[in-house]
């Protein structure tokens, strides 16, 4: 080896701080990373091949397990794709219900992000607190859908069940609690904590140019000053009927990525409250046969999941199964930026930066 | 957006077909695969990133769907290129759209399509010693494939 | 094993030795069963529920299952939660072999029991009992956090009765 | 002094040279019991306390209130098989043994709550305890080297760098206290506080002592060498079984020692009205212990360069300034 004082560290795929099964190959000199190479594929479960073997209605469980931290977003995306391809229209109530579920899931996903970011710089308590708050919403998802992590709530044409009686009161109660915690407790642990600030501010800066080069979307792009949110740019579901802001930060460092997500939780709470107020009566489901056939065509649908812009390219050939289903995952692009982002940072910071990307490997590897 | 695809079609007269009417997507079909780089340079004026690259196996023809997008608005452009089974290679567009890097590696991994000029064309999702390209329609998931663990186990 | 027809009473020293051994075993098994430090081999969905297992609502620490988050060397129990792909299988075995005996395995989730949702996938291991000895299974896709508690209880019972795979294989 | 007491009893029954050995053995057994009690009990307090902060229960089922939880952990570690590959056997085994023995020795030297309640009394006990605390950079380097593991090596380097930059501040602070009382022996220091606790008019010294003490025992937020999120367990990564158990014991003993030192040096030790001295000592030490245990669960971990910068740029100058001020105070 030409560099005698270089150590090559193989971090992951099994490592307490690695998110899922990402593997990082770091060349370290002293305590500084000089070369980084992310390696993926440890959770490649062949979701795209399995899609070609399942009926359109039977693919929802697999979608759940793609981005398992925001499963409902995935379900909604797939449902929208199939409905667009098959020309199914869903009732207005269903769009509102889907908006509510998508935002609940977004809050839950961002809570996990906040917790794991805290854990990666050594604060285990923040992680457990975030899980505690997440459990409040988990109970609601459980009440509504019957499932926890993989709820299996959406189906072609709407939802499997209607909202149970009095769920809006539960949701509002939980949201109040979470808003209170996020505004007060989390600011004490994170934004007013000197150690946290010194560990995140100015660390892992992503410039606008870098974002555009790598094709990164979602909260990470918004933390670098790119004001793009598909919920605003091309409103789907009921997002054009509610009023919300898109939090944008300019610095592009780890701290901005944290703040963007923290503010997104508050925006999501706002959206859910409005949706609950406006929730119209009507059918929650359009009757669609279990086995549908979609004529030969290409469909491309993209939506804003909690991690960025998730898209599905669906090729159908007139049969009851997809001919080809390609998933466009946001963190697949974001993780590649690590090769540039991790150079010349300290080893300890490398983990915080990875956490700030918030990868979910199920979605990266598919 | 209509203007863009028309403009592109005019520029590449005869080499580019417009396909319209499918779910309001802007789709153009490129007849000659050697022009993909030239087209990409042209597209670079309007689009920031390669949004995704979808390969569809209509054996004996493989259809590549390049989806381009940009950050300013909602527009997307899909470029279809057909590759023959006998010559599964196409010029890489990584030097034009950097975001194509891993997408092309994935297409190489799962479909075995060679991208000429790609800086680092290796398998990305599957182990290096994996046999075959699983997302091709000809790939059969039999017991042998399912039970292959890549491990040398004694029991 | 040769069978001998003659029956002989064990001598006094042998009896004392056996009694002492049994006593030591009981004490050690008590310690082992009450202090199962897990190695969190979380690969996918089940990993999130595994974290919930250690967090507020369920609290694995009540049973002595302390998430130290450290190296395999200090762990007794490997919680394999999440799909194991073929690329991952060798890493799983590698990590498993780095754990000191006696070690126990809990396979979490449908994927690790039989393949589950991904039974017809080309890149997953259909059930990790094909590659390593498993003491307890946690069903579900993904399982509720409470089911982890049940699995730990089952494992504790197995250890106390000398019936875990590690003890059966003489690795205790 | 417990040793003298034991020796005086034993020598009544046994002739002289043998009684010396016997009383040593008795002292050793007593010390083992005390040392074993500390990780079990303090460890339980730590776990319960952290659980409460995180709104959990903590250990419940093993023993009453889960009191025997850490005892079960240690029992399990005794029954673990040894596993290691390509290690430097001498370096690998050196560290846990020294950690265990130095923990013993520290407890032997410190009075356990009342004057004369120490196992062995020597005039410079404070310096000796400091030496035993400050031995760790050597241990960390040796362990990190002997384990043949990259994480351990980086952890060892980090640990050595961290402890070297903080132990200087610690000894300076110790000297300023010794200067004030005119002695390095703990009973004398405590006796010097009969009018007013040193901690009350040297609050900065107290703060520096706690911070550098936490850094030396690698307690969070100063657990950079073992940083479980980055380096798995840092320099401990390859240790299994009872060798790891020794570290567990050593950790808790050293936390206790720091709490005891704070009590003796700054909070007047066993001095206090009405209640017996031992009780006063226990109350004070428990409060200090809880304060020391808390940061682990509410702070994150700074980066190693930030940590060392803080140590050299702020803590050390402050400690030196403090020493000068105390000296002026004493001289005038």
Automatic annotation (TrEMBL), chain A:
Keyword Translocase attributed:
yes
| Entry keyword annotation includes Transport | yes
Superkingdom per UniProt: Archaea
> Which InterPro entries does the protein's record reference?
NADH_Q_OxRdtase_suD, NADH_UbQ_OxRdtase_49kDa_CS, NDH1_su_D/H, NiFe-Hase_large
Locate the NADH-quinone oxidoreductase subunit D domain: which residues? 120-288, 291-366
Family assignment?
A: Belongs to the complex I 49 kDa subunit family.
Q: What is this protein called?
A: NADH dehydrogenase (Quinone)
The species this protein belongs to is Candidatus Parvarchaeum acidophilus ARMAN-5
From TrEMBL, chain B:
Q: Which UniProt keywords apply?
A: Transport, Ubiquinone
Segments forming domain NADH:ubiquinone oxidoreductase 30kDa subunit = 32-144
Entry annotated with the keyword Transport: yes
GO MF term list: NADH dehydrogenase (ubiquinone) activity; oxidoreductase activity, acting on NAD(P)H
Q: Which domain of life is it from?
A: Archaea
Q: TM segments?
A: none
* InterPro entries the UniProt entry points to: NADH_quin_OxRdtase_su_C/D-like (IPR037232), NADH_UbQ_OxRdtase_30kDa_su (IPR001268), NADH_UbQ_OxRdtase_CS (IPR020396)
Q: By its UniProt entry, which Pfam families does this protein fall under?
A: Complex1_30kDa
- Protein family: Belongs to the complex I 30 kDa subunit family.
What is the designated name of this protein?
Answer: NADH dehydrogenase (Ubiquinone) 30 kDa subunit
Automatic annotation (TrEMBL), chain C:
One Gene Ontology term from the biological process aspect of the record: electron transport coupled proton transport
Ranges in coiled-coil conformation: none
SUPFAM superfamilies recorded: HydA/Nqo6-like (SSF56770)
> Which Gene Ontology CC terms are recorded?
respiratory chain complex I
Source organism superkingdom: Archaea
Keyword annotations of the record: 4Fe-4S, Iron, Iron-sulfur, Metal-binding, NAD, Translocase, Transport
Q: Name one GO molecular function term.
A: quinone binding
Looking at the record, the residues that make up the NADH:ubiquinone oxidoreductase-like 20kDa subunit domain are: 45-153
Family statement drawn from the similarity comment of this UniProt entry: Belongs to the complex I 20 kDa subunit family.
Q: Write down what this protein is called.
A: NADH-quinone oxidoreductase, B subunit
* Natural source organism: Candidatus Parvarchaeum acidophilus ARMAN-5
């Amino acid at each position: 080896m030409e560099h005698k004082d270089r150590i090559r560290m193989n971090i992951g795929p099994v490592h307490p701080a690695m998110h899922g099964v990402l593997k990082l190959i770091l060349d370290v000199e002293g305590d500084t990373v000089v070369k980084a190479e992310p390696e993926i594929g440890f959770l490649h479960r062949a979701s795209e091949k399995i899609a070609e073997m399942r009926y359109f209605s039977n693919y929802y469980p697999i979608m759940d397990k793609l981005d398992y931290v925001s499963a409902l977003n995935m379900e909604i995306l797939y449902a929208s794709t199939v409905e667009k391809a098959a020309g199914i229209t869903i009732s207005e109530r269903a769009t509102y219900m889907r908006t509510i579920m998508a935002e609940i899931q977004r809050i839950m996903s961002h809570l996990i992000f906040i917790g794991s970011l805290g854990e990666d710089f050594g604060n285990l308590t923040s992680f457990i607190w975030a899980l505690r708050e997440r459990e409040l919403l988990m109970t609601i998802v459980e009440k509504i859908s019957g499932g926890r992590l993989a709820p299996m709530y959406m189906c072609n044409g709407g939802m499997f069940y209607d909202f149970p009686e009095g769920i809006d009161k539960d949701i509002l109660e939980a949201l109040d609690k979470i808003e209170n915690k996020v505004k007060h407790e989390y600011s004490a642990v994170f934004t007013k904590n000197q150690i946290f600030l010194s560990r995140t501010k100015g660390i892992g800066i992503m410039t606008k140019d870098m974002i555009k080069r790598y094709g990164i979307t979602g909260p990470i792009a918004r933390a670098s000053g790119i004001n793009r949110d598909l919920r605003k740019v091309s409103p789907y579901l009921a997002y054009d009927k509610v009023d919300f802001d898109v939090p944008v930060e300019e610095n592009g460092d780890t701290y901005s990525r944290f703040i963007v997500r923290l503010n997104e939780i508050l925006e999501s709470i706002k959206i859910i409250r409005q949706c609950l107020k406006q929730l119209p009566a009507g059918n929650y489901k359009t009757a669609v046969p279990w086995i549908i056939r979609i004529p030969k065509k290409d469909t491309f649908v993209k939506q804003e999941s909690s991690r960025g812009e998730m898209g599905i390219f669906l090729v159908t050939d007139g049969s009851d199964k997809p001919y080809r289903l390609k998933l466009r995952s946001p963190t697949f692009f974001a993780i590649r930026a690590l090769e540039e982002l991790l150079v010349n940072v300290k080893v300890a910071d490398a983990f915080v930066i990875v956490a700030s990307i918030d990868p979910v490997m199920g979605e990266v590897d598919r | 957006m209509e203007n863009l695809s028309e403009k592109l079609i005019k520029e590449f007269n005869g080499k580019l077909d417009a396909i319209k009417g499918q779910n309001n997507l802007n789709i153009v079909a490129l007849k000659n695969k050697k022009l993909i780089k030239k087209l990409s340079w042209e597209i670079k004026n309007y689009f920031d990133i390669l949004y995704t690259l979808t390969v569809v196996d209509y054996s004996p023809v493989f259809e590549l769907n390049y989806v381009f997008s940009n950050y300013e608005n909602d527009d997307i452009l899909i470029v279809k290129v057909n590759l023959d089974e006998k010559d599964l290679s196409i010029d890489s567009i990584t030097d034009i759209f950097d975001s194509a890097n891993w997408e092309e590696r994935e297409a190489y991994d799962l479909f075995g399509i060679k991208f000429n000029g790609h800086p680092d064309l290796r398998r990305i999702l599957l182990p290096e010693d994996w046999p075959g390209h699983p997302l091709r329609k000809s790939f059969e998931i039999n017991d042998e494939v399912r039970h292959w663990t890549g491990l040398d186990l004694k029991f | 094993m040769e069978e001998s027809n003659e029956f002989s009473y064990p001598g006094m020293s042998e009896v004392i030795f056996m009694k002492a051994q049994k006593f030591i075993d009981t004490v050690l098994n008590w310690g082992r069963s009450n202090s199962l430090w897990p190695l969190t081999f979380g690969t996918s969905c089940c990993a999130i529920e595994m974290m919930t297992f250690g967090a507020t609502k369920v609290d694995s620490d009540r049973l002595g299952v302390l998430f130290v988050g450290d190296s395999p060397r200090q762990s007794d129990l490997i919680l394999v939660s999440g799909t194991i792909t073929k690329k991952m299988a060798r890493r799983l075995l590698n990590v498993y072999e780095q754990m000191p005996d006696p070690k126990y395995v809990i396979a979490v989730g449908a994927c690790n029991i039989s393949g589950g949702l991904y039974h017809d996938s080309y890149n997953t291991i259909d059930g990790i009992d094909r590659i390593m000895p498993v003491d307890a299974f946690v069903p579900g896709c993904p399982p509720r956090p409470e089911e982890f508690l049940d699995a730990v209880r089952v494992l504790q019972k197995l250890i106390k009765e000398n019936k875990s795979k590690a003890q059966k294989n003489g690795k205790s | 002094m417990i040793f003298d007491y034991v020796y005086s009893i034993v020598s009544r029954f046994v002739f002289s040279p043998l009684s010396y050995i016997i009383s040593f053995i008795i002292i050793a057994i007593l010390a083992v019991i005390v040392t074993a009690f500390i990780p079990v009990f303090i460890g339980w307090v730590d776990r319960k306390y952290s659980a409460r902060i995180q709104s959990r229960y903590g250990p419940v089922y093993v023993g009453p209130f889960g009191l025997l939880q850490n005892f079960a952990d240690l029992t399990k570690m005794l029954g673990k098989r040894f596993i290691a590959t390509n290690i430097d056997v001498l370096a690998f085994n050196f560290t846990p043994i020294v950690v265990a023995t130095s923990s013993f020795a520290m407890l032997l030297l410190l009075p356990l709550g009342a004057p004369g309640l120490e196992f062995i009394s020597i005039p410079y006990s404070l310096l000796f305890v400091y030496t035993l605390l400050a031995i760790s950079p050597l241990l960390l380097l040796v362990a990190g080297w002997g384990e043949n593991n990259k994480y351990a090596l980086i952890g060892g380097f980090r640990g050595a760098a961290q402890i070297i930059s903080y132990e200087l501040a610690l000894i300076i602070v110790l000297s300023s206290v010794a200067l004030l009382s005119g002695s390095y022996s703990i009973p004398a220091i405590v006796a010097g506080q009969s009018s007013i606790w040193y901690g009350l008019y040297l609050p900065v010294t107290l703060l520096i002592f706690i911070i550098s003490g936490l850094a030396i025992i690698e307690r969070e937020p100063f657990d950079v060498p073992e940083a479980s999120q980055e380096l798995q367990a840092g320099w401990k990564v390859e240790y299994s079984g009872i060798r790891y158990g020794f570290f567990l014991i050593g950790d808790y003993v050293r936390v206790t020692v720091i709490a005891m030192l704070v009590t003796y040096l700054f909070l007047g030790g066993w001095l206090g009205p009405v209640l017996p001295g031992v009780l006063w000592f226990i109350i004070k030490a428990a409060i200090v212990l809880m304060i020391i245990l808390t940061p682990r669960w509410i702070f994150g971990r700074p980066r190693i360069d930030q940590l060392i910068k803080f140590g050299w740029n702020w803590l050390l100058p402050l400690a030196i300034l403090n020493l000068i001020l105390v000296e002026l105070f004493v001289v005038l």
